[in-house]
Design goal:
The protein is of the alpha+beta class. It has helices at residues 8-13, 24-32, 82-96, 111-119, and strands at 2-4, 36-42, 48-59, 63-73, 102-104.
């Protein structure tokens, strides 16, 4: 089952899957922004086994697209379709919200991520390079 996280309690249920500790102020800021989305995958027992986060980004000459920010599935629940279901659900939400597309960045050697995204309908984009700032 896929559901949208709308409460801090739901976010905390997914906390073991995040890269770092969850910060209450960031949780509230995320949930309060209507352009931020966190979808959760639950197993048959109701436990959170995965999440995908997305952020709508709008540019004056392009419109709005969905940035798939992060995808995580508990190792014990991998290879059961949760990741594909999460990505597909985020793509569906993007369509519902009028986004013209969705994009994701991943490491070139992350074969599992690439397979998941392709299984959910993603195709290759133009070759790019990512540059970043750390503040």
């Amino acid at each position: 089952m896929i559901e949208r996280a709308t409460t801090p309690e739901q976010v905390r249920e997914a906390a073991p899957l995040f890269d770092h500790d969850v910060h209450d102020q960031a949780v509230h800021r995320f949930l309060d922004d209507p352009n931020h989305h966190l979808l959760l995958a639950r197993d048959d027992a109701g436990a959170v086994v995965g999440f995908v986060s997305g952020v709508e980004t709008t540019h004056p000459d392009k419109g709005t697209e969905m940035f798939l920010y992060e995808l995580a599935v508990d190792p014990a629940a991998q290879r059961r379709g949760h990741g594909r279901a999460l990505v597909s659900a985020l793509a569906g939400l993007a369509r519902e919200r009028g986004c013209y597309g969705m994009f994701v960045l991943t490491d070139d050697d992350n074969d599992a991520a690439k397979a998941t995204y392709r299984a959910a309908g993603a195709g290759p984009a133009e070759p790019t390079i990512m540059l970043g700032w750390t503040f």
